[in-house]
Amino acid sequence: MRQIRHFINGEYSADPGGRSFEKRSPLDNRVIATVAEATRAEVDAAVRAARAALSGPWGRMTTDERCALLHKVADEITRRFDDFVAAEMADTGQPHHVMTHAFIPRGAANFRVFADTVKNVPTEAFQMATPDGAGALNYGLRLPKGVIGVISPWNAPFLLMTWKVAPALACGNTVVVKPSEESPQTAALLGEVMNAVGIPRGVYNVVQGFGPDSAGEFITTHEEIDAITFTGETRTGTAIMQAAAVGMRDVSFELGGKNAGIVFADADFDAAVDGIFRSAFMNTGQVCLGTERVYVERPIFDRFVQALKLKAEAVKYGRPEDHASNYGPLISQEHRRKVLGYYAKAVEEGATVVTGGGVPELPGELADGAWVQPTIWTGLPETAAVVREEIFGPCCHIRPFDDEAEVTALANATDYGLSTTIWTTNLARAHRVAAKVEVGITWVNSWFLRDLRTAFGGSKQSGIGREGGVHSLEFYTETRNVCIKL
Ligand code: NAD
């Protein structure tokens, strides 16, 4: 049985003999690993190691030296590509091609893009007039914030965790990471990479465990953590923000969504069906940017629903190693209970079930996995729970609309504001709607097309702050102004 340990001060912790928990495969519910659960003392040791590293060799490195090391991290991830793919497939059960084409390469890319960004961002300078005529010069100094707590979710574990670790390290901070209890493996494996390329001890630390009364809370309440970057549910973000208020620690939050897909009648029909299919069902619908509300202009509504139904019914269930499979299970039995609860609620609320709504019949061991059918509903009012609440499963509700003003209002009638995807060949309309939807990220005629230099984050209850490219520097550094009287 695989043992997953903490990685503190450059070493994997010895068998703790203390608290641990089982990680089960989403594919068949078998136990695949025993994971150590950090105590408060272990989190404290990780934070102390991270604090000490700030004034060690890491803190003395030049930006060039630090960024060169981060490129080596990316190279080593690429060299150990198959190990990362295997670890993440084991944790999430998602298809091989999703790992090899998206989630694991993005981990390496995150280190490269932030190493390059940090080296090329100037700080500001302002000349000012003074009464004596001699003037003064102001310039900004960018300094690392210190020890950053990184708390990440399970839905794209390696991509989302490195999206925070890479800019934090590029800016000269040190980190204490807590991956989700559902996906402990890739964060642990990254410790081997850090040691292999010579990242000084204490710079990258990982503690395993849960949220409340466990590693997550021990990090967020630790007074030596200078700032917290978190991706996960909005409700969890609220709890973390309360913890961060003590000591006035800064937070960066990437939270939940209830994203709208908008399809106008003039859209490239096949491209729109493909795009909405991917955004609703990729990663079994467990993508924060995914579409759970679809609005389709009335003249193409029936045809669109039928086309999406055909695609949803053609998914290939299977183990990730089976390259013919393109659809995985949900992350856990617990999450499946939540999603199936929403499937039942949709029926209670009067939905027309276009397809799915239940559990597929699968052979052998897979029958015990956390599988659910891709599901499409129509006919619900906007007040229905499945139209308002984030389900985080492979499902969407589709509703017809008649004009631009109506669909913009429908898209905005939510407390969330993460992303939207708009499908139209009328570019003027695309610009108009994009400017009006209250979200952090809008895609036109595409979905999940990511340039890592751009601002990423949510409006309303979908997040606080922006990360990506230079925007990450706003959170991971502190700008000090120096004013020199000439
Ligand atoms: P979650 O909030 O349940 O857990 C996320 C992490 O927080 C886990 O590591 C968990 O152990 C930890 N945690 C839980 N309670 C905590 C507490 N009180 N204190 C400290 N840590 C705590 O989220 P999840 O179920 O892992 O992930 C799914 C959610 O993440 C969805 O809502 C999804 O939309 C969101 N998400 C958002 C983005 C984005 O970029 N906006 C990206 C991916 C996922």
From TrEMBL:
Record-linked SUPFAM superfamilies: ALDH-like
Alphabetical UniProt keywords: NAD, Oxidoreductase
A Pfam entry, by short name: Aldedh
Residue stretches making up the Aldehyde dehydrogenase domain: 19-482
Top-rank taxon: Bacteria
EC id: 1.2.1.85
GO molecular function annotation: oxidoreductase activity, acting on the aldehyde or oxo group of donors, NAD or NADP as acceptor
Active site: E254
Family: Belongs to the aldehyde dehydrogenase family.
NCBIfam families: OH_muco_semi_DH
Protein name: 2-hydroxymuconic semialdehyde dehydrogenase
